[in-house]
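Good morning,

Both structures are done.
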Amino acid sequence: MREASFVSKNKEKWQLFDDVLSNKKQVSPDQLSDLYIEVTDDLSYAKTFYPASNTEAYLNSIASTAHIKIYKTKKEGKNRFVQFFLKEFPLEFYQHQKQLLIAFVVFGFFTLVGAFSASKDADFVRLIMGDAYVNMTLENIENGDPMAVYKKANETEMFIGITINNIRVAMYAFVFGIIFSVGTLYIMMQNGIMLGSFLYFFYDKGLFWESSRTIWIHGTIEISVIVIAGCAGLVLGNGLLFPKTYSRLESFKKSIKAGLKIMVSTIPFFIVAGFLEGFVTRHTEMPDWLAIFIILLSLASIIFYYIIYPIQLTKKNAK
């Protein structure tokens, strides 16, 4: 290839890399890594075919600058954890908004299916929730305390048990994405139907408001983060289904890394949801305004961190 053609073919990529190094633009860590590899490959090519040329000198300059920056900032210290949540993850998650929407739509659709099925078949709730849970709840309703299930276990034990169980469900939603995303969609369907039938059960007993103001104290974050884990599963599955310009194996490796980052981001939220269910939900005597405040604050936190903030940060870094 003639040097002029080589330069023309790659100059936009080199310019982008140069802009990132000079802090004029920002890209996700994965994209930066890809650019660095491609530029160093181009440098090797230039050294072979265009030795002592301006092209080689330019590529050597930006590759050297990148090398220095990488090793200069290698000592990441305490800020690495903070930077992941405040900058690295939101920038990368912006690319996965489509998968988040799909997970949400599938979950929402099957929640409606669960509620509709429960309204048409009185035994459907027992099929989904189990006879033991339904009988216990009916007994609690008769005793005048429909939400007593949240008061029986010790707070700390409940907090730990619920948190571990929620993370387990989320991991299923993520890992099952390896079955070309179908496994993740199945987990979304399963949990959506369960939620829909659960809500209809209390609606049918005339307890929709009382149950909702109690359940959604912890359920707002719990359900939202399971949907986000579904997004991670779809990212994993899409890496296998749509490798784009990468080999299928390389695409799969990248999708595992991206999916795991999404899962790591959910851990603090699962801890908060477990804490709320173990220590707060049991206080069914709390005033409605306080329950509504917790629910709205939880919902706002999820929407801001996973939707609004990634968009804002991406637009800011694109300037």
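Second structure follows.
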Amino acid sequence: MEMRVMTDGKRRKSLAVAAAVLGGVLVLSACNDDTGGSASGSPTPPSQSQVDEAAEAAKTSKAQITIAPKTGTQNASINNDAKVTVTEGKLTDVTMTSAEGTAVKGEIAADGLSWKPSEQLERATVYKIAATATDAAGLEAHENSSFTTVSKANSFIGNFTPEDGSTVGVGMPVSINFNKAITDKAAVQGGITVTSSAGQEVVGHWFNGQRLDFRPEKYWTEGSTVTLKLDLDGVEGADGVFGVQQKTVTFKIGRNQVSTVDVATKTMTVTQDGKTIKTIPISAGSPDNPTYNGQMVISEKFKETRMNGATVGFTDDDGKGEYDIKDVPHAMRLSTSGTFIHGNYWGPDSIFGSANTSHGCVGLNDVKGAGDPNQQAAWLYDHSIVGDVVIVKNSKDKTIAPDNGLNGWNLSWADWKAGSEA
């Protein structure tokens, strides 16, 4: 006997049809004595096949399928919203496709009670889900849904540093830059956790509506592991703008290396785990262009890079840069505004340790082409990693702004915590 699957509307129609079939048989039998009615005028009973068909039409599956999101939903999550569940039955088939017909992979759970996609959905995309389930009697039930995921215009992401799996220096903060302005900072910060295997207290600090950094009171403990968890999916960061990220990142803290530049003595002392391993003569910013004071963190390393004064405001009367060096060796960035510690091959050897001549960077003796590993700049470059701390002291300039690079260590712990929305 064929099993039929019906929506609620079809079920009601089938029941009505069944009633009409049975009722119609009785009516016709009673009103037409010439077609086989009994002599007593009693109605002719329906045939067994008619009864079976009417009864079968009235049967419906007990399985109840629920699909999320509901049909018509807008701004659905690309991570967690899509799912199918069933009660009083087992799922037998679920298909999910984009409006263009692209299939989305997914799996029915081993117990047959649920299904979810096994891949992240695309933003601003219409998806359709069709599900089938059977109850204990083998009767099928069907359900469908169509919804639209959150658009790029209605979502935000956070670009973070450091990278997953990296090893960094003790000064490396977790820095998150959001691609849209955040107005509900508490909600967003509540969806982010940063923890240290060393048990250090880690606190977030908002520099503005788009940047949130995390650090402990003191530098990270060497050898520890730091975990960043982004649980922002569906978090409303601004009116009608939702997070889409759901990610866990871990990175390791390397040895504790801190390099202290004394502008007055024109030397740099490099320590690892509190012990001095190298003292290097340097040339810092000239009296007209002094180097910032403060704690700075190496954020990038370049074996060679171009430095053009025009990009940081040092220009001649013709508008061109006061300098334009296309192959600065062993350069490591200390600030967003252009402060580097780098090799210098164009200055005479005599300036290192005796004269401050730069436009604000810290220079070490080097050769053109960055090919001599015995040079002081090459040694420092080879012994440094992103996240190492460089402290500059005794300069006539001010302390670097904490948001100029990854330099939040220049805020006191009380001021840092005051910028938290947790």
